C-alpha cells in the first residue's frame, strides 16, 4: 500500500468532476491508503474526463474485472455487435478485440480501461450520434443533448441486468426502428464479393444467353433463388418470378423483365437508398434529447411539410415553403419552443433584405416599395422626403423598414414565434400559388405555411374552448395581437430525405440543400478513421 493524500493521487480534473457529480453528504471520507491498482487506474482515467467522473466516485474500483465483470463485458460485446444495424461503423467499437480480451478472463487495469473506453464511445454515439452536427455544415445548428457517461456507468455498474441498461440507450422512437428495419432490408441486396456481375442487356422469359446464368446466380445469392426448369442459361418462368420479387423489394416496377434499371440495381447492391437511411438514423440520434411523444411541431424541410404530433400520432399537416437553395437563404435545422402567435403581424424587414434589395430601389426612386414604412431606431416612421437615400451604403444605412398589418402583408394574417438567434419563424403569406409547386424552396429562410389559420386553431385548441372564436376576434381587431401558448410547444426543424410514413414505409425526398451528402461523407470518414485506428 502507498500512503498519500487523496489530492496527490486523484488528478484535479477527475477529482473536480467526482465532487461535482456526487452530493456532498454521500462523498466518502478521504482515504490516505491506495493500492497500486487504484493508483494505476487513477492515472489512466485522468486522460478521459468522462471516465474520471465515474471512477472518481466509484472508489477507483474496476467494474469490468472480478465479480460481476463477466456479465458487464458480455453485455457490452453483444451491444456493440449491433453497430452496423444502427448505421454505425463497427470498427469503432473494437468488438473482436473485446472478445479476445474476454476470452482470457481479463484482470489488468489496461483491460478494464479498454472496456470502459468502448462503453464511453458506444454510449456517446448511440445516444446522440457519432457526429457533432454543427461541425458538418453551417445550416445544421442542432445542439445534441446526451446523457453523461459517468451517470450511465453508474447505472451500468449498479444494474442487476447490465444488458437492459444498454438496450435502453438507442432511440425508442418507432420511426428509428423502422429506419433500422429498412437498413436491414437494404443489406439483403449486397451480393458476396467476387460474384460476377450481370452483363448489360434486356433479359426476359424465353431468352437464352450465358448472362442469364449470371442473373440467376446473383439473384440466388440475395435470397431470390429460382431453380432452372431446364438449362440455367435459359430465362424461364421461375426466374421471371424471382426477378419480379427482387424488383418489388427494391421499389422497381415488378414486370419480371431484367432490363437496364433492374440489372444496374442488382449489380450495385446497396446505393443512394441505403445512404439516405444511414444519414436518417444519425439525424434521429441527434433528436434523442427531445421527447418526441410530447405535443410538438415537426417541419421536415426536404418534404416541404409541417405536422403537429401528439402522443406519437399526427394530428395536423400542411404544406410549407422553405428557404431558397442558396447558402444565404437556406432554412437552418434546430429545435426551439414556440411561445406565442402574432395575429395581424407587422413585418419588420430583415436588414439583409433592406440593404440588398430595397435600398438600391430607394436610391433610384425614393417612393419605391411604397407599402413599406421607413423607421428609425426608436420605431418612428420617417417621411421619405426627409432622407437622401443616395448618401448611404449597405453598411451605413441607419433605418429599418416595416410593413403595417394588411391583407397584402408579407407575413399574412399570423406568424408563429419560437425566438431563436437566426430570426426564423413560421408565418402566413399572401403568395398562395407557390403551395401548388412540388418543390417549394422560395423564401428568404423563414417558413411559409399553407394552412396558417388552421395551424393557429390547432395550436390554441388545448388552452381555449373555441380557438376559432379567439383567433377571429384578434384578427377582426385589425391590431397586432399576441396570443401566448400555454404551455409552449416544441418546434423541430429537421432535414430527412428518407423517413418512414405512418405505415412504416420509407419515403424519399430530394436533398434540396445538399446537406445529406455532407453528413454521409462525414459518417464515411468516421468509419474510415475508426478502421484506420485498428482493433
Architecture overview:
- The structure is a single chain.
- By secondary structure, the chain is of the alpha+beta class.
- Helix content is 38%, strand content 14%.
- Strand 10 and strand 11 form a beta hairpin.
- Helix 2 crosses helix 4, helix 5 runs antiparallel to helix 6 and helix 7 crosses helix 14.
- The longest helix is centred in the N-terminal third of the chain and has 20 residues.
- The chain starts with a strand and ends with a helix.
The poorly predicted ranges are 1-9
Helix content: 25-40%
Spatial extent as radius of gyration: 30 Å
What topology, given as strand order, has the largest sheet? 3-4-5-13-11-10-6-14
Our estimate of the beta-strand percent is 5-15%
The span between the termini is 35 Å
User: Helix segment count?
Assistant: 18
Q: How many runs of DSSP E, i.e. beta strands?
A: 16
How would the global form be characterised? globular
Structural class: alpha+beta
Mean pLDDT value: 90
Question: How can the largest sheet be summarized?
Answer: 8 strands, mixed, barrel
Amino acid at each position: 500500500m502507498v500512503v498519500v493524500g487523496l489530492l496527490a493521487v486523484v488528478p484535479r480534473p477527475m477529482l473536480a468532476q467526482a465532487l461535482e457529480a456526487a452530493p456532498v453528504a454521500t462523498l466518502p471520507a478521504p482515504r490516505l491508503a491506495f493500492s497500486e491498482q487504484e493508483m494505476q487506474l487513477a492515472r489512466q482515467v485522468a486522460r478521459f474526463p468522462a471516465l474520471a467522473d465515474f471512477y472518481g466516485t466509484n472508489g477507483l474500483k474496476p467494474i469490468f474485472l472480478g465479480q460481476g465483470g463477466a456479465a458487464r463485458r458480455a453485455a457490452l460485446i453483444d451491444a456493440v455487435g449491433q453497430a452496423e444495424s444502427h448505421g454505425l461503423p463497427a470498427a469503432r467499437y473494437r468488438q473482436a478485440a473485446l472478445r479476445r480480451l474476454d476470452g482470457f478472463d481479463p484482470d489488468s487495469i489496461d483491460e478494464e480501461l479498454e472496456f470502459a473506453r468502448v462503453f464511453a464511445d458506444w454510449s456517446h454515439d448511440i445516444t446522440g450520434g457519432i457526429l457533432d452536427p454543427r461541425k458538418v455544415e453551417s445550416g445544421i445548428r442542432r445542439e445534441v443533448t446526451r446523457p453523461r457517461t459517468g451517470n450511465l456507468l453508474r447505472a451500468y455498474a449498479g444494474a442487476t441486468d447490465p444488458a437492459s441498461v444498454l438496450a435502453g440507450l438507442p432511440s425508442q422512437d418507432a420511426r428509428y426502428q423502422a429506419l433500422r428495419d429498412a437498413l436491414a432490408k437494404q443489406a439483403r441486396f449486397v451480393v458476396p464479393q467476387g460474384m460476377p456481375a450481370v452483363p448489360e442487356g434486356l433479359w426476359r422469359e424465353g431468352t437464352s444467353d450465358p448472362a442469364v446464368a449470371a442473373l440467376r446466380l446473383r439473384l440466388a445469392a440475395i435470397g431470390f433463388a429460382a431453380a432452372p426448369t431446364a438449362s440455367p442459361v435459359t430465362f424461364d418462368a421461375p426466374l421471371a418470378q424471382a426477378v419480379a420479387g427482387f424488383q418489388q423489394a427494391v421499389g422497381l416496377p415488378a414486370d419480371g423483365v431484367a432490363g437496364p434499371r433492374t440489372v444496374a440495381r442488382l449489380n450495385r447492391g446497396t446505393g443512394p437508398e441505403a445512404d439516405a437511411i444511414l444519414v436518417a438514423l444519425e439525424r434521429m440520434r441527434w433528436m434523442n434529447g427531445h421527447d418526441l411523444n410530447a405535443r410538438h411541431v415537426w417541419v421536415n424541410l426536404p418534404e416541404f411539410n409541417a405536422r403537429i404530433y401528439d402522443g406519437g400520432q399526427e394530428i395536423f399537416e400542411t404544406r410549407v415553403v422553405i428557404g431558397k437553395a442558396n447558402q444565404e437563404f437556406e432554412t437552418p435545422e434546430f429545435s426551439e419552443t414556440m411561445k406565442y402567435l402574432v395575429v395581424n403581424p407587422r413585418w419588420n424587414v430583415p436588414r439583409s433584405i433592406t440593404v440588398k434589395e430595397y435600398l438600391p430601389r430607394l436610391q433610384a426612386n425614393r417612393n419605391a416599395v411604397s407599402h413599406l414604412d421607413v423607421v428609425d431606431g426608436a420605431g418612428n416612421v420617417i417621411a421619405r422626403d426627409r432622407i437622401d437615400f443616395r448618401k448611404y451604403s449597405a453598411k451605413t444605412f441607419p433605418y429599418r423598414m416595416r410593413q403595417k398589418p394588411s391583407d397584402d402583408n408579407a407575413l399574412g394574417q399570423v406568424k408563429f414565434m419560437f425566438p431563436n438567434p437566426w430570426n426564423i419563424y413560421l408565418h402566413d403569406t399572401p403568395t398562395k400559388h407557390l403551395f401548388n409547386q412540388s418543390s417549394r424552396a422560395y423564401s428568404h429562410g423563414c417558413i411559409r405555411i399553407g394552412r396558417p389559420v388552421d395551424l393557429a386553431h390547432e395550436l390554441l385548441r388545448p388552452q381555449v374552448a373555441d380557438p376559432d372564436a379567439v383567433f377571429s376576434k384578434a384578427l377582426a381587431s385589425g391590431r397586432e395581437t399576441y396570443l401566448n401558448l400555454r404551455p409552449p410547444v416544441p418546434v423541430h426543424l429537421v432535414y430527412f430525405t428518407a423517413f418512414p410514413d405512418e405505415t412504416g414505409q420509407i419515403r424519399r425526398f430530394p436533398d434540396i440543400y445538399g446537406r445529406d451528402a455532407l453528413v454521409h461523407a462525414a459518417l464515411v470518414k468516421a468509419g474510415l478513421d475508426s478502421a484506420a485506428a485498428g482493433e
